[in-house]
Amino acid sequence: MERYEIRLSGSGGQGLILAGKILAEAVAIYDRRNAVQTQSYGPEARGGASRAEVVISDGEIDYPKAMRLDLLLSLTQVSCTKYAGDLKKDGILIVDSEAVTEIPQGDFKVYRTPIMEIAVEQVGKAVVANIVALGIMTAISGVVSEESMEKAILARVPKGTEELNMKAFRMGLETGRSLVAG
Amino acid sequence: MERYEIRLSGSGGQGLILAGKILAEAVAIYDRRNAVQTQSYGPEARGGASRAEVVISDGEIDYPKAMRLDLLLSLTQVSCTKYAGDLKKDGILIVDSEAVTEIPQGDFKVYRTPIMEIAVEQVGKAVVANIVALGIMTAISGVVSEESMEKAILARVPKGTEELNMKAFRMGLETGRSLVAG
Amino acid sequence: MAEGQPASKELAIIRVNVEWCKGCEICVAFCPKDVLEMEGGKVTVARLEECTKCMLCELRCPDFAITVE
Amino acid sequence: MAEGQPASKELAIIRVNVEWCKGCEICVAFCPKDVLEMEGGKVTVARLEECTKCMLCELRCPDFAITVE
Amino acid sequence: MFDYLTYVREGNFPHIWCSGCGHGIVLKSFIRAIDKLGIHRDEAVMVSGIGCSSRTAGYVDINTLHTTHGRAIAFATGVKFANPKLHVIVVTGDGDATAIGGNHYIHAARRNIDLTVLIYNNYIYGMTGGQVSPTTPRGARASTSPFGNIEPPFNISGLASAAGASFVARGDVYHAQKLEKLITQAIQKKGFSVVEVLSPCPTAYGRRNRMASPVTLMEWLRDNCIPVKKYEKMSEEERSGKIRTGVLIDIEKPEFTEEYRKLVDSMQVRG
Amino acid sequence: MFDYLTYVREGNFPHIWCSGCGHGIVLKSFIRAIDKLGIHRDEAVMVSGIGCSSRTAGYVDINTLHTTHGRAIAFATGVKFANPKLHVIVVTGDGDATAIGGNHYIHAARRNIDLTVLIYNNYIYGMTGGQVSPTTPRGARASTSPFGNIEPPFNISGLASAAGASFVARGDVYHAQKLEKLITQAIQKKGFSVVEVLSPCPTAYGRRNRMASPVTLMEWLRDNCIPVKKYEKMSEEERSGKIRTGVLIDIEKPEFTEEYRKLVDSMQVRG
Amino acid sequence: MPDRYAGRTMMMQGNQACAEGAMAAGCRFFAGYPITPSSEIAEWLALRFPEVGGKFIQMEDEIGAMGAVIGASLTGVKAMTATSGPGFSLKQENIGYAAMAEVPCVVVDVQRGGPSTGMPTLPSQMDVQQARWGAHGDHGVIALTASSAQETFEQTIRAFNLAETYMMPVLLLLDEIVGHTTERIVIPDWDTVERIDRKQPEVPPDEYLPYRCPEGLIPVLANFGTGYRYNITGLCHNETGFPTNNKQENESLVIRLTEKIVAHRNEIIRLKRMMLDDADIVIFAYGTVARSARQAVMECREQGIKAGLLEATVLWPFPTEEVYALAGSVNAFVVPELNLGQMAREVELAVRCAAPVHRLNRVDGDPITPLQILDAVKEVV
Amino acid sequence: MPDRYAGRTMMMQGNQACAEGAMAAGCRFFAGYPITPSSEIAEWLALRFPEVGGKFIQMEDEIGAMGAVIGASLTGVKAMTATSGPGFSLKQENIGYAAMAEVPCVVVDVQRGGPSTGMPTLPSQMDVQQARWGAHGDHGVIALTASSAQETFEQTIRAFNLAETYMMPVLLLLDEIVGHTTERIVIPDWDTVERIDRKQPEVPPDEYLPYRCPEGLIPVLANFGTGYRYNITGLCHNETGFPTNNKQENESLVIRLTEKIVAHRNEIIRLKRMMLDDADIVIFAYGTVARSARQAVMECREQGIKAGLLEATVLWPFPTEEVYALAGSVNAFVVPELNLGQMAREVELAVRCAAPVHRLNRVDGDPITPLQILDAVKEVV
Ligand SMILES: Cc1ncc(C[n+]2csc(CCOP(=O)(O)OP(=O)(O)O)c2C)c(N)n1
Ligand SMILES: Cc1ncc(C[n+]2csc(CCOP(=O)(O)OP(=O)(O)O)c2C)c(N)n1
Ligand code: SF4
Ligand code: SF4
Ligand code: SF4
Ligand code: SF4
Ligand code: SF4
Ligand code: SF4
Ligand SMILES: [Mg+2]
Ligand SMILES: [Mg+2]
Q: F258 CB near a chain H CB, below 8 Å?
């Protein structure tokens, strides 16, 4: 695969940077392909809007930032509005359907699903919304293997929360699969 | 006159830098010729050896430091030994005869006189040795007028010490004249 | 109870600027009368009639997001 | 006075390093026995026999220039 | 309802501080103080350094000067000395004022120059993501003290007094009304005045130290900040873990710009 | 006779200090102290900043590090932390330590790192020719306070205590034997220890303040430096103009390098 | 009330002349920290300022001094600090702030031998590249120099005028010799001194945007306390003075900070030309060394060597075009400096290979003598 | 005991890779002060050092951190600090001290947008000239850079090796993108890492002169506490380490501080060459921008444009000769940089007019993209 560009966007505290790191680690360490993860912050290293990017490729990844997105995840309206235009033709947009109500126009596939709600109501904790999102993205994008994602998640989440996170990931996978299935 | 270079040398606290400034002021402000005065210090701006230079000329003075001395005043042996070699052929060396006992070899005229002793015993204060020296130099060098020197001294010395300093200056003048004469 | 209370006692006007409210819950936690509640990450007025206009919610809101009149 | 004094009382050896002495007069001023004097800007031992070897001159000389043995 | 909006730069809101950050409460207390004092906004200058706390300057509609990290007091010294008519208020953080800025802090106190310094003490470097600060309690966790801080913290207020400040107070954002009073007194004081304000940082400090919720942090302030008078009556045991708040120092001494003015006046007479 | 010469770098003598400068007396007291303590010279490091006082380093035959103005304590922190076995002594001036170096001074005190700091306080910047310093008394003349200093001076020792030092003493060069003892105690103390030494500067301070003669300055010290115990018994009036000397603070508290060692040890167990 | 020195001819050190120039320029605020060989500037102002109501403060360190100067300037007063190498290094962060926030002020560096503590009482020209690049981040720089007490007086005035015109810190690079040499200076009546004061807003407060730059490149900053309330920050900001995350606004700010110098280079750059019309060899010199170079040119001419002198009194912006203009018609450049060739780099960049550039460097703490330059020229001929 | 990461392949930020590189190089002392975007270096070492007995201290400010690093180094430990622009400015005085006293240490500057507080979370390459000229006084400088996490790991090791070899501070200039990008790195077994430790005296203490330089240019400084008692100062000093007023000694010291770099330039300079053999256009790039340049070269070649890349991994000393060597055979140079042309100046000086030098500058906080470089090359063709 040439180059696959993913952006995870939302606001600080949603754990998107950690999600980006897990995704990159799954690809680069466990799937043994190349991945580079970058991020951007608000003023100095704090709060506000948050954005993580993962570029995946079988070749060397020189330019580390995304240029034309293959996949955009947006957990807030602001980030969706801001970044949807960066999607490639036929790219994929995944949004939290509760937070994002207005989808910008564009030549891309849109998947809407209440990510935060799934985390709170089906998994039981808002903090795992990022892992739910990872599950959805894994199912929809197909750029990373499920096993590698599981390993990467387990390696990064705090001790004692493994099960919760696995549950979130699987919830996400299911959601993703049914979204693809339509 | 092309360029006349004077160096006053000794140790910190002998007032040589003030003497240099007075001489330069006499020439440049009162005699209305050109004069430039420079100095050098020990480590940072303190104590130790002390050296003041005055360059006098009717033309512009570009290079402000002495290159070949016309006149060297030395109140210590160390400074005399160090600087005598910088004298021009036929230059003038004036030394405190008590402090400087060894005169280096060289093609210059030497005037020996107990400057400090004159200050202490004939004027009454060691601190005016610098002014005594100015008197001697005025008489011997002929590069500055006596009147201008008097004005410059009066403008620079602390209030209340004018008479003392005038006495010192005249004592120096006399000494200088008799040295030239004899 | 009605006696001794000024007849003219008016209900407080509590305004929440939801654009600014960051949902810290400070106003909710320290309202002595339990007037406020969280809803969808923002504060909302649940029991206006209980409000004594003590102004503590306004005082402590870090986000200039709630005012009481 | 001689009684009670050890017979073997020796004169102090006071050494002045004239190269190092800067003539500050501290040793002179604070010698309890007035042993020292200034001469030509340097210290000199004027009344050695008075010296009690109290070492104060050595102690306070800022220039490491005077020693007492 | 207090009308804060006429004092703020509304266009810059919502402010950048995190949900539950105490800094907004300090800002509000400050606004009420200048309102009460009737200070003309054109004659008030706020000088800040770098840090979350220092961002306060961007929100108040007075003359505002957001400087370099640690140097706010030095800049403020220039402003005040150049134009002593201005009311100069410094807003700064524990890191800004007492880590990199410690020297300016003690020297301004020594000089007793008429500045009012509000130190937002959140025990951490908030802006840069939670590194240990000179006020982080022993044992507390920060990104650069991952095993618990081994350094003892400064007593910010004690330092100011030792250095020569004429007014030193400590307040906290839970007791926001009292804070307003302390700030009022500090501004009124002619001389170097400090108000150390305990202002929680849920994001960078709370999360690492089992106080992630703003409410928990506020409760902690409620329960541990003890007014001076009450504190004095407490036994040694009762005092443990408690923090003295209120006016700690309030003395009269010559003020720097005033002394300089006298010098200049004396020259005019001489000259 | 005390044999100073085995401890000094004789080739660098006579030293650069002016006639009657007190700094040489401090140096001698220091030498007697390390001699008495039997400290191995290879294990002693002297760190200094810039100033006449800081030139001390060039004269002692131990490891010596003459750094940048105001930063001696920071450099010394590195030396000590990197190799806690070394005895690290900082020699510095009132300007070096408390003007430009004030921040490092208070932070090293806070950390309570095991350094011994000798501050040669001559109330002036000697090296640069006599500018006002943070310890210049009010009213005193300096080249940058030609009409008399309008700023109040620091209490150097008080500042160190407020910042957290575990040992603070004040001595003077007239009472040179006592000074030696204070330095000895300071070196022995495990923790941040300060000895403020009143050391006259006839050239830059004395001359401007009617104390041009070294003897006058020494007499002034003799008459005004009062041992703590005696001072405590004096009335308020008697105290005026007098200076308390002796050990001012001596407390026990955890030392920084020791605390870090414990942290490392605990990791070895964990790991 | 005329000043007591106004209109007088006096003997003064360069450092004192600098202080007097500042006063004549209208400077009424000085914050400093002593350091050889600059301390006399502070000392002279400590003595003189109270007479004219100027404010003098000795700060706790150089960083604080630079901060205080910027703070003072924002109230509308002309403000200055002075230092030497080690202090110049320490001031860099705040000099960069003044450049970013566009606060006029003057920073004097009386250069001594470096690096580090180096040779505190000896001259050098070792900080000239630091003047250009000492602070992090890109921004334009104006740095002047002077070779005599009189010129120091005048250049100090010019430094203030440039600072107020272009709204930025202006650096004045002297050296130990210029600073400590006592020579005659004529102090004009202050009223006759050309003095530029910073512009003040012409719009009412509610229309005012501090960084709008009515003339395109230079902002108009209202003095604090005059009713224009705005924000100043060292963060990238837009016209309003508030921080921005807008990329275009970032870019236009950063570029403008350099562009405002580039665009006005002709008004800023000044050169002194001596016997250049028929010169085969151009000596490029500045500061103290230019004095020796003048004498060297005279001696060259006496010996029949067609040498001329291009003396820079503005080091930054560098007179690239002016140097290049000479390059075609001469055989060589000789660049004597009290450093290891710092401005010779610039001369080389400027001549664009049209003529060889020879260096004459001295770093032992002694000045370059006329004879040394003469010899260097002869070697080239 | 092998380290727990040794021999592992991991995902790491450039900043963490820098910290790991330091550990692998044998660094056991870090003193710092937090600043975006460098703080992760400190944070990672605060976590990691206790495991290996390394010392971590957060100082009160950047100046103190730099001082502590120098002090620590003199005990023989390898020591480092890390910062960004504002802190880099503050450290300059003490960096100059380390250069003067010849104390090995490593200073990392993770560059962000400037000037002043600027754009704290956005990348730049705006401090590259400051790295050369930031401290007052003349002295040689070594500055490395890196473009990926793996290279950061390696360059950090090299920085220590150069510091210990040439006895001086070595600067490592990263940028926000390199510092914050997470990518795969392979951490070798520490035993296999080439590690250079500073020489120790071979003569007995009584014959030892710290600045004698047995091999001509580089002194041998004994670790404090090992029985060699000597003096270190930032004043001009002679072989003994004591201050001197001797002019010849001053001169030889100052010249040696530059000469030791000039003389060893070939050992220090390293370049990466990509498709240069037949190149018409040379892109000169470094750091983050070199990544884009690599991609741009590939795209140029696809489009039939003969572009090549000369990537500098050592910025100072500048590879003047290597650049010049290419100048004769190519049509042009293109120098893309996240600043206003700071290294393009050097390229211009180096090519000596043998080929035109085109600049591509970006200062809005966004990186230069491969496409931008491609466009710039096309414009030149
Ligand atoms: C010279 C310099 N060093 C470091 C920084 C990075 N920095 C920005 S804010 C900050 C700490 C702020 O802490 P504090 O003052 O306590 O404010 P808070 O954010 O906690 O309110 C630091 C270290 C900087 N901007 N400039
Ligand atoms: C960064 C810097 N600023 C200023 C100086 C100039 N300087 C050298 S010593 C000194 C003051 C020394 O005073 P103090 O520490 O009291 O020592 P003393 O000479 O009085 O013993 C100053 C300001 C310097 N060398 N470096
Ligand atoms: S005013 Fe008082 S009672 Fe009313 S909502 Fe606010 S806190 Fe509650
Ligand atoms: S205190 Fe303010 S920000 Fe917090 S929940 Fe209440 S209204 Fe919202
Ligand atoms: S030892 Fe005592 S008595 Fe003897 S000379 Fe010295 S001070 Fe005087
Ligand atoms: S105290 Fe020392 S320096 Fe002073 S006069 Fe006596 S011997 Fe000489
Ligand atoms: S990081 Fe802490 S101090 Fe900064 S805004 Fe957030 S809560 Fe407040
Ligand atoms: S200037 Fe003062 S402090 Fe310095 S050596 Fe002379 S007397 Fe001592
Ligand atoms: Mg804080
Ligand atoms: Mg002093």
A: no
G13-41 pLDDT, tens digit each: 999 999 999 999 999 999 999 999 999 99
- Does domain G8-192 fall under CATH 3.40.50.970? My reply is yes
F201 Cβ inside 6 Å of ligand 8: yes
Q: Is C12 in the pocket of ligand 4 (CB under 6 A)?
A: no
Give distance in angstroms: CA of H284 to centre of ligand 6. 67
What is the model's pLDDT at position C7? 45
CATH number of C14-68: 3.30.70.20
Is some CB atom of chain E closer than 8 A to the CB atom of H7? no
CATH architecture designation of domain G272-380: 3-Layer(aba) Sandwich (3.40)
- How far does A44 lie from chain E, in Å, by closest CA? 6
Distance from Cα B129 to the centre of ligand 1, integer Å: 59
Which chain G residues touch F144 with a CB distance below 8 Å?
34, 42-43, 46, 56, 58
- Which residue segments constitute the domains of chain E, with CATH numbers given? 11-270 (3.40.50.970)
Which chains touch E (3+ CB pairs under 8 A)? Answer: A, C, F, G, H
Average pLDDT over residues D26-39: 97
- The whole-number average pLDDT for the span F202-218 is 95
Give the span between the Cα atoms of G87 and G95, in whole angstroms. Answer: 12
Say whether A52 sits in a helix, a strand or coil: strand
The atom of ligand 2 lying closest to the CA of F93 is 15
ipTM: 0.97
Do chains G and B touch, with touching meaning 3 or more CB–CB pairs less than 8 Å apart? yes
Exposed / middle / buried, residue A120 (Cβ in 10 Å: 0-12, 13-18, 19+): middle
Q: Report the pLDDT value the prediction gives residue G188, as an integer from 0 to 100.
A: 96
- Which of G59, G72, G231 shows the shortest C-beta gap to E82? G72
CA A22 / ligand 7 centre spacing (Å): 26
pLDDT at D40: 83
Q: Is the dihedral of CA H145, H150, H156, H162 positive or negative?
A: negative
pLDDT score for C1: 41
Mean pLDDT score of chain H? 97
Alpha carbons G172 and G107: distance in angstroms, whole number: 6
A25 — contact with chain H (CB < 8 Å)? yes
Instruction: Taking residues B93-111, report their average pLDDT.
Output: 95
- Alpha helices per DSSP H over H26-108: 39-52, 62-73, 85-101
Candidates G172, G142, G170; CA nearest to G155 is G172
Grade residue E271 by pLDDT with cuts at 50, 70 and 90. Answer: low
Spell G24-41 as b/e; 16+ CB within 10 A means b.
Answer: bbbbbbbbbbbbbbbbbb
Same fold, G8-192 and G272-380: yes
| Predicted local distance difference test score (pLDDT) of residue B46 | 54
